[in-house]
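B., you asked whether I could sanity-check this one before it goes into the benchmark set. Here's the sequence:
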Amino acid sequence: MAKKHHVYLVPGFFGFANLGELVYFGHVRDFLEEELRRRGLEARVHTVLSHPTASIRARAADLLSSLKETSGTPEGPDEESVIHLIGHSTGGLDARLLVTPGARLGEGLDVEPWAQKVKSVVCVATPHVGTPLASFFLGFFGHRLLELTSLFTVYALRFGRLPLSVVFRFGGLLAKADDQLGWRQTLLDQLFGQLLSDFSKDRQEALVKFFKEVGSDTSLIPQLTPQNMDLFNAATPDRPGVRYGSVVTRARPPSLRGRLSAGLDPYAQLTHSIFSLFYGRAGRLKELDFPRLQPEQSAVLLKAYGKLPRPEDSDGIVPTRSQPYGKVIAAVNADHLDVIGHFDEPSHAPPHVDWLISGSGFRRFGFERTWRSVVDFMLEEAEQRPPVVSRL
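And here's what the prediction gave me:
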């Protein structure tokens, strides 16, 4: 009996996979479907709808629900099903938890029949050692800023650019040294309302529901601190027989050169400022905070970057040294969203839209090479090709 490959794309922290046409994994899904079809495989690619900031355990339960709905029945998976999990950012942690032997995701949830069908787990830009940025988002200002920048993402994907009035007002917020919480809160609320008003009534309702859902359960944020990820890793041993791989990302550090390369466009300058703020917060771990790299992992990172990434290196969200897990399938120069297709290449159909201007230089060629190597790994063809690496 022919195998039926089911590939599940698990969104990361604050992922907006459930916002209709604003597709988090749009380019990844299109590419994987075409690549698997080109290889003559019977395969389906599914996007998982996860609670954006709920706990890893709750999000893993969301993943289990998706498996039950699409690769079998509630009683168990189809006999011929082969399951592959691909998680971006914290989605990689959801996938790891689901396949952990003996995982308990909730009362009455039998995980084992589904976990036994998983053949590969690919973690893309995943914070296996956590990210210091989580501590920043725990504060009220950091949390509200996260909501607003997520709305920026949705707005940019829908309309292309932010209104200049929003750009200049938000730019002033980042530039001023005034730390009065009330002033910041008022301005953030005003900007949020202004952006929301440009959407249709139906879309406004969907976005309000999305952010209400985010506000109702933010359990994920403290779990991503380096201290709590240490406990997570101690409790999630790998499942024998499952192949674990990772895609590692590193962006250029913010610099005058990067700011100049963004050009004079106010929107590009604003998003580069957001990237710079997040990058500085993400790079606050020390060498001793990271586990020792395996020799094979070190070799790939050295080939990609010329030297091992420093503790302060990151993709703007997750420290680069926090990302290796299992086989390093690809190590690329890309920011946290570039690697899933959110970079600047408007000539491609459908166009790639970059809302976070990091100056990484990541483009369609690197995107295709990276995701083709992921397919090789899933299908156990990875040993036939060297890992994907890129240099600045």
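One thing to flag: Strands lie at 4-10, 43-47, 72-73, 76-77, 81-88, 118-124, 243-250, 327-333, 388-389. Otherwise nothing jumped out at me.
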